[in-house]
Amino acid sequence: MPTFEVDGRLARWERTGTLRGRPLFVLAHGAGAPMTSPFMEHVADGLVEREVCVVRLQFPYMEEIVASGRRRGPDPAARLLATWRAMLDVASRWRGRGAIAIGGKSMGGRYASLLAAAGRAPEARACVYFGFPLHPAGKPELGKRRAAHLGAVPVPQLFVQGTKDALARQGALRAALAKVPDARVVWVKGGDHSLATSRREPFAGSDAWLDEAALFLREHC
After folding, report:
1. What is the extent of the structural domain holding 94?
2. What is the pLDDT of residue 196?
3. Mean pLDDT, range 105-130, rounded to an integer
4. How many distinct structural domains can be found in the chain?
5. Which one is predicted more confidently, 139 or 65?
6. Is the CB of residue 178 less than 8 Å from the CB of residue 190?
7. Most CB atoms closer than 10 Å: which of 48, 91, 110, 180?
8. pTM score
């Protein structure tokens, strides 16, 4: 899989599906699992089946975890954002002037939104988040602070959220997005932070929200 460097550390990406005539969606992983996790692979494969080209991005700290087998926390915010920006530089070179969408699972999506809100992702035409981490578990009152930048994201945003997500209570997310233009939520009934409604079958019912995500991407890209 191709790599690039950020602050002297390796980041990795993998493209799935053909690019010709299709939206390009750059998808970053969450804080605790790599871009090859079952969730990331399921989303990538599902969107490719729905005529979206997907690029999965792996941050440097996760690359080190995979290589060493030793756990560690995420990179500093500045490096996460720099990695996102470097990935878009790579994607833009072979995408040309075609549309790009950005987003990710949990933390990966949050940093995509921060990049877009800061005006550092002018290529992006849309953002899609799977399990946006609005607040720490049990502290929905902190959601307002984490959502403060969302109104500055200059493109349409889609939030795919489980109704039982401990990191984004429904009331807190609705309140946070009340004044955010072009923001839409797809609620996954009974879904947790990974959108799973069943431990035995974590992807049961995923066709419905993958359809919604693909439609959104095709509409805006």
Report:
1. 3-220
2. 97
3. 97
4. 1
5. 65
6. no
7. 110
8. 0.96
Which runs of E-coded beta strand occur in the chain?
A: 3-6, 9-16, 24-28, 53-58, 100-105, 124-130, 157-162, 183-188
**Closest Cα to residue 163, out of 188, 184, 141, 183?**
188
Is residue 112 classed as helix, strand or coil in its secondary structure? helix
CA-closest candidate to residue 20, choices 123, 125, 96, 88:
96
Residue 96 pLDDT: 67
CATH number for position 160: 3.40.50.1820
The DSSP secondary structure of 134-174, one letter per residue, reads -S-TT-GGGHHHHTTTGGG--S-EEEEEETT-TTS-HHHHH
Pairing of strands 9-16, 3-6: antiparallel
- d(Cα 123, Cα 180) in Å, to the nearest integer? 20
For the chain, give the mean pLDDT.
Answer: 94
Two structure tokens written together for 218: 């095709």
Is the pLDDT at 21 greater than 90, yes or no? no
The Cβ-side half-sphere exposure at 5, using a 13 Å CA radius, reads 3
| Type of residue numbered 46 | G
pLDDT bracket for residue 137 (50, 70, 90): confident
220 vs 124: CA distance, rounded Å: 10
| Tokens 């849309």, located at residue | 126
High-pLDDT (> 90) share of the chain, %: 88
Say how far residue 129 (Cα) sits from the centre of its chain.
5
